[in-house]
C-alpha cells in the first residue's frame, strides 16, 4: 500500500517542473468521477468540462494515469462535444503519448479533437476507463464461511495535467460491509455510495491517496483462456464453439471444503463462491449444448425472447477462490443474420468477445473458419489484435478450410463489439463437395455392379465366398455388442445424474436406489454380452478386431467399478455427514481417472463403428 503514497510524494516534486511545460493553456472547470466497484471489473466514468483559457486553438487533451493503474487498463474511450451545454457527443480517437519532461511513473493518453478548441471555448469530455485486476483481495486467503474483502486504491483528486477548478469523486460499492475507507474533509458514506469532494482549485498532478476496504462477493469469473471457433457453412449455418477454462479470480479458499456444509447452507457456507454463469446468446441461436470432459451437462437453463436467448450454466461444483473448471458451449446461428455480401465480397459481421456476463478473459483466441475455397481474406476489428492464418481439414475437404485467427489479451465485456471478416468465395466451390459425393456414389455403384457380377461367377463353396459370409456375421455381432456398450454408457450417465441430483436435493435414499438399479442393469447387460463375445472370438475373421474388443470390455469394466465405488463413497459421506480433505482428494482423483477411461471407451467404440 506504499505505492500510492510514494507516487503522491514524487508527483509533488515534479508538479512544478511539468506544470509550466503542460503546454496548452487548458483548464478543467469541472471534473466529476464516478467509480463503479460492484463487479470485479472496475469502471470509471470521468466527465470533464475543459476550457481553453489560452490564446491558441488546442486540438489534443491529455489524460494521465499512474503506471500501476495503466498496466491494468483494459479499455479507454473518450466522447466529446463542444459548446456551453452538453450535446450529442462523438467518439474521439485516443493514443498513448510520451510528452517530454513528464515523470516516468505516469502514462499519458491523448484524445484528439475533431476540430481545434478555439480560445475561450468549452469542451465536454466523457472518458470511460475500464480496469482489470484493480481490486486486490485482502486477506488473500479466506475460509469457506468467510466473505470476500477487497481493497481499492486511488486518489481523491483527479490526476490531471491541468488545473482543476471544481471536482468530485463518487464510488459505488456493492452494498455489503465496508471495513474502512480513507477519510478527508468532505468525505461521506451514504448507503453504498462513498463521496469525496467537492474540492476547489486543485493544482495539476495533485494526488491524494485513498484506500477503500470493502466486501465484494460478486463472481470474480476469469477465463484463463477462451477459444472461440466460428465456422461458416454456406449451406445456411454459422456454428459457434467456445472452449472455456474458468477460474474464480478472488481470494483463495484455505482450509477444508465441506460439501455438506455447503449443501445445507449454501449462502452462509459459500458466500464467496459462485455456481452459475449466464451467457446471452443471439435470439435465433439453436442446437445449444453445454458439456465438459465427462459429457453433457443437463443442468443448464434456457430462456429466450425475440431479442436474446439466455443460457444459464451450472458447472458440476461451485467455484471458490482459485478453483478452476473447463467446459464447452456450442450453438448454431442462421447464416443470413451474420454473413452478408457487398462489392463482390462476402463478410461475416459478428461480436468478438464471450457471451458470458461480467467475465474477464485473460487470453481470447477467435478462430474464423471460412468455407473451403475462400480467397482474399481481410479483417476489420475495432481494436488491435494479433492475427495469423491456419488451415483446418474436415471430411471431404481437399485443400482444407482457411482459418483466420485473432488473439487478444485482457478482453472485457466492453470489447464485445462487432468485427468483420471479408472474403471472396465462388459459388462453384459450394458444388465441389456434393459433386465429389455424387461421383463417389457413382463409382461405388459401378464397383458394386462389377463385384456382384464377379461374385455370381464364383462358386458358393469357394473360400472367398465363405470368408465373406463369416465376416458379415462378425460385423453383425459387433454391431450388437456396440449397442450393449452404448446402453452401459447410458447407465453410467444415469449414475452421474443421480449424484448430481443428490448434490441438489440431499436425497441419499433415491441415490442408493439408482445405484441398485444400475447394478442390476449392468448384470443384465453382461449376461447378454457373453455369448456375443464368444461368437466373435471363435470366428477366424475376427483376429484383427478381437484385441480391440477385449480391450473395450476390460476398460468398460474398470470404468464401471470406479463409477460404482465413487458413487458409494459420495453417498456414504453425505449420509454420515462427514467429508474430510482426503475423501475429497480421492473423489477428485477418481473423477479424473473416470473421465480418461470414458474417453478411451468412447474412442474404442468409435474405432469399432468404423470397421
Ligand atoms: C449432448 O447433447 C447434444 C445436444 O443436446 C446432443 O446432440 C448430443 O448427442 C449429446 N451427447 C451425448 C454424449 O449425450
Ligand atoms: C455489423 O452489425 C452491427 C449490428 O447489427 C451493425 O451496427 C454494424 O453496422 C454492422 N457492420 C457492418 C460493417 O455491416
From TrEMBL:
GO biological process entries: protein N-linked glycosylation via asparagine
Compartment(s): Endoplasmic reticulum membrane
Pfam family, one: Ribophorin_I
GO (cellular component) term, any one: oligosaccharyltransferase complex
Transmembrane segments: 430-452
Keyword Membrane tagged: yes
Keywords from the named record: Endoplasmic reticulum, Membrane, Signal, Transmembrane, Transmembrane helix
Secretion signal span: 1-24
Pathway: Protein modification; protein glycosylation
Topology relative to the membrane: Single-pass type I membrane protein
Subunit and interaction comment: Component of the oligosaccharyltransferase (OST) complex.
Family that this chain belongs to: Belongs to the OST1 family.
Role noted for this protein: Subunit of the oligosaccharyl transferase (OST) complex that catalyzes the initial transfer of a defined glycan (Glc(3)Man(9)GlcNAc(2) in eukaryotes) from the lipid carrier dolichol-pyrophosphate to an asparagine residue within an Asn-X-Ser/Thr consensus motif in nascent polypeptide chains, the first step in protein N-glycosylation. N-glycosylation occurs cotranslationally and the complex associates with the Sec61 complex at the channel-forming translocon complex that mediates protein translocation across the endoplasmic reticulum (ER). All subunits are required for a maximal enzyme activity.
Name of the protein described by the UniProt record: Dolichyl-diphosphooligosaccharide--protein glycosyltransferase subunit 1
Amino acid at each position: 500500500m506504499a505505492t500510492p503514497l510514494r507516487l503522491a510524494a514524487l508527483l509533488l516534486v515534479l508538479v512544478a517542473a511539468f506544470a509550466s511545460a503542460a503546454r496548452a493553456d487548458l483548464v478543467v472547470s469541472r471534473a466529476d468521477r464516478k467509480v463503479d466497484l460492484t463487479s470485479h471489473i472496475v469502471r470509471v466514468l470521468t466527465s470533464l468540462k475543459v476550457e481553453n483559457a489560452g490564446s491558441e486553438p488546442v486540438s489534443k487533451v491529455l489524460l494521465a494515469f499512474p503506471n500501476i493503474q495503466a498496466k491494468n487498463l483494459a479499455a479507454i474511450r473518450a466522447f466529446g462535444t463542444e459548446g456551453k451545454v452538453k450535446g450529442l457527443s462523438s467518439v474521439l480517437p485516443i493514443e498513448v503519448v510520451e510528452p517530454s519532461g513528464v515523470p516516468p511513473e505516469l502514462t499519458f493518453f491523448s484524445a484528439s479533437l475533431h476540430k481545434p478548441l478555439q480560445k475561450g471555448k468549452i469542451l465536454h469530455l466523457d472518458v470511460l476507463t475500464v480496469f482489470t485486476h484493480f481490486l486486490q483481495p485482502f486477506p488473500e486467503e479466506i475460509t469457506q464461511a468467510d466473505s470476500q474483502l477487497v481493497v481499492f486504491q486511488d486518489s481523491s483528486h483527479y490526476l490531471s495535467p491541468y488545473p482543476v477548478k471544481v471536482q468530485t469523486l463518487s464510488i459505488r460499492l456493492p452494498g455489503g460491509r465496508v471495513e474502512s475507507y480513507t477519510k478527508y474533509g468532505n468525505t461521506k458514506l451514504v448507503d453504498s455510495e462513498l463521496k469525496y469532494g467537492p474540492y476547489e482549485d486543485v493544482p495539476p498532478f495533485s494526488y491524494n491517496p485513498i484506500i477503500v476496504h470493502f466486501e465484494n462477493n460478486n463472481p470474480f469469473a476469469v477465463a484463463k483462456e477462451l477459444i472461440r471457433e466460428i465456422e461458416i457453412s454456406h449451406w445456411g449455418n454459422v456454428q459457434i464453439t467456445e472452449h472455456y477454462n474458468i477460474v474464480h479470480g478472488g481470494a483463495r479458499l484455505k482450509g477444508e471444503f465441506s460439501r455438506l456444509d455447503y449443501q445445507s447452507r449454501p449462502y452462509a457456507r459459500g458466500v464467496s463462491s459462485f455456481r452459475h454463469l449466464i451467457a446471452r446468446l443471439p435470439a435465433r441461436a439453436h442446437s445449444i449444448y453445454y458439456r465438459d470432459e465427462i459429457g453433457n451437462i443437463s443442468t443448464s437453463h434456457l430462456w429466450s425472447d425475440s431479442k436474446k436467448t439466455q443460457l444459464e450454466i451450472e458447472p458440476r461444483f461451485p467455484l471458490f477462490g482459485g478453483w478452476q473448471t473447463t467446459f464447452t458451449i456450442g450453438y448454431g446461428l442462421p447464416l443470413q443474420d451474420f454473413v452478408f455480401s457487398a462489392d463482390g465480397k462476402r463478410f461475416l459481421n459478428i461480436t468478438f468477445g464471450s457471451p458470458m456476463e461480467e467475465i474477464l478473459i485473460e487470453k481470447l483466441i477467435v478462430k474464423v473458419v471460412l468455407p473451403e475455397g475462400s480467397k482474399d481474406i481481410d479483417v476489420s476489428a475495432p481494436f488491435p489484435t494479433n492475427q495469423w492464418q491456419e488451415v483446418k481439414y474436415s471430411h471431404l475437404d481437399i485443400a482444407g478450410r482457411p482459418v483466420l485467427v485473432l488473439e487478444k489479451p485482457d478482453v472485457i465485456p466492453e470489447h464485445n463489439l462487432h468485427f468483420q471478416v471479408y472474403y471472396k468465395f465462388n459459388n462453384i466451390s459450394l458444388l465441389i463437395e456434393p459433386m465429389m459425393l455424387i461421383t463417389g456414389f457413382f463409382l461405388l455403384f459401378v464397383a458394386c455392379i462389377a463385384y456382384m457380377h464377379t461374385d455370381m461367377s464364383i462358386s458358393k463353396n469357394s473360400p472367398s465366398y465363405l470368408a465373406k459370409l463369416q465376416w458379415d456375421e462378425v460385423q453383425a455381432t459387433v454391431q450388437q455388442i456396440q449397442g450393449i456398450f452404448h446402453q452401459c454408457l447410458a447407465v453410467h450417465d444415469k449414475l452421474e445424474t443421480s449424484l448430481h441430483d443428490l448434490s441438489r436435493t440431499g436425497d441419499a435414499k433415491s441415490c442408493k436406489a439408482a445405484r441398485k438399479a444400475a447394478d442390476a442393469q449392468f448384470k443384465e447387460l453382461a449376461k447378454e454380452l457373453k455369448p456375443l463375445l464368444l461368437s466373435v472370438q471363435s470366428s477366424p475373421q475376427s483376429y484383427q478386431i478381437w484385441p480391440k474388443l477385449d480391450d473395450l470390455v476390460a476398460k468398460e469394466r474398470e470404468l464401471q467399478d470406479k463409477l460404482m465405488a465413487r458413487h458409494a463413497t459420495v453417498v456414504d459421506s453425505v449420509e454420515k455427514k462427514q467429508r474430510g480433505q482426503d475423501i475429497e482428494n480421492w473423489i477428485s482423483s477418481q473423477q479424473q481417472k473416470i473421465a480418461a477411461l470414458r474417453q478411451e471407451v468412447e474412442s474404442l467404440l468409435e474405432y469399432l463403428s468404423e470397421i
